[in-house]
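Entry, Tuesday afternoon. Goal for today is a structural model of the target with adenosine-5'-triphosphate bound, before we commit to ordering more compound. Inputs were pasted exactly as handed over by J.K., no edits. I checked the ligand SMILES twice against the vendor sheet because last time a stereocentre got dropped in transcription.
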Amino acid sequence: MIKLQHVSKVYGKDIKALDNIDLEFNEGELIVLKGVSGSGKSTILSLIAGLLKPTSGDVLVDNKHISKLPDHFCSQYRRDNIGFIFQKYNLIPTLSVEDNITLPLVPLNLDEKELHVKLEAVMQMFSIEHKKEIAVKNLSGGEQQRTAIARANVNNPKIILADEPTANLDEKLSKEFIQILKELKSLNKTIIVATHDPLFFDLDFVDRIVEIHNGKLVCS
Ligand SMILES: Nc1ncnc2c1ncn2[C@@H]1O[C@H](COP(=O)(O)OP(=O)(O)OP(=O)(O)O)[C@@H](O)[C@H]1O
């Protein structure tokens, strides 16, 4: 479903973030992308999300050449296929939970009823409905995380990309996040988690751990 073929990424003149990566992710798989800081994990996620283009090689999702899409089509591809959970959540602090979650739906021009149904469903699924009118800056870390997860899922994407999702969470909240991942996997989402958090390295519902070191694959 997702294929990286001979992918290299060089930032600027000579920062080689990825070096000839070949990787495949199947539909419904949960993969942990493991590696120390700077190894190239976020770069892989950004390439799959169409946020970056490889310097060479190809990224295919459902046989579509994501790495060759013009920017406009990349945005549409992301909207239709990708839910991105960022380490720092990337929420707008002054907006309410509900307004933050609505943002990915704005370009779709849904009528009010349809919008309401989608929002309520996703807020209930990730247990943040009771805070819907509260500004995100007034939430706890775990609540912000759940808002970010709800926003990433409001378009019902089939691919979830999570970049160091537990970096700002304590162990209890990290374990809660892991339960949420398990639920998302049961919905047949394809999930890629980039992390160096050991909590992810011994989970029975993780299909594969892929290790990356200095932009190269260690095992797959
Ligand atoms: N926009 C950029 N410009 C220049 N160099 C970059 C840029 N983004 C990443 N890099 C470099 O590319 C390499 C890989 O970075 P990347 O963010 O993919 O690693 P990572 O494994 O996700 O790290 P972390 O866990 O710290 O987020 C690093 O050496 C980083 O400094």
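The radius of gyration is 17 Å.
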